[in-house]
What we know:
The protein is α+β, with helices and mostly antiparallel strands. It is built from four helices and ten strands; from the N terminus they run αααββββββββαββ. Helix 1 packs across helix 2. The longest helix has 17 residues, at 141-157. It starts with 10 loop residues before the first helix and ends in a 9-residue tail after the last strand.
Amino acid sequence: MVAAHTSGHSSASADWIICLDKRPAERSGEDVEIILARLKCVKAFERFHPSLLQQICLCGFYDCLERGITLYRQGDIGTSWYAVISGSLDVKVSETANHQDAVTICTLGIGTAFGESILDNTPRHATIVTREFSELLRIDQREFKSLWEPYRKALVSELVRIGGVTLSKGPCLSCPG
C-alpha cells in the first residue's frame, strides 16, 4: 500500500481515500457509503449494478503512485486488477525480453480498468508505467475472481481488448474532485 497523497485534495476527496485505505474488515457502513459515492462518479464504474459497486467498495484498495513508477512488467504473473481514478499510465509492449525497447501503444486515463489476466494466471501482456501522479483502485486476485463469477456479464460488457491489453470501454472521464 502506498501512503495517501492528499495535498491538493478536497476534504471530501480525502475522506474517501481514508476509507478505501482501511483494511476491508475494518470498513464501517459509513466508510462503504463514502467510497460508493466517489466510485459512482468514475466512468469505469458508472454503469455497474449497485450490488457490484458495493462489493468493490468492500474489497478494493487505494494506491497512489508518483510519475515514472512501473506498476508491473510485461511477462509478470498478475496479482491485481486496477481502475484509474486520477492520472494516467502508459501501456508499453516489447517484442523481446528486453524492457528497454518497449514501445508505448496507448495511455490509460481516468476511468480505465485493466488487469483481467489475473483470471487465468496468464502473464501480463504489457508493462504499465505511470505517466503522472496517479490514483488507482486495486482489487486483489482472490477478490476479483469472487466478483467475476456472479458479475461476469456486467464486467465483460465494460471491457474491450486493445493490442492484447484489456481496457474498459468509453471515454476517460470522471466527475471533478
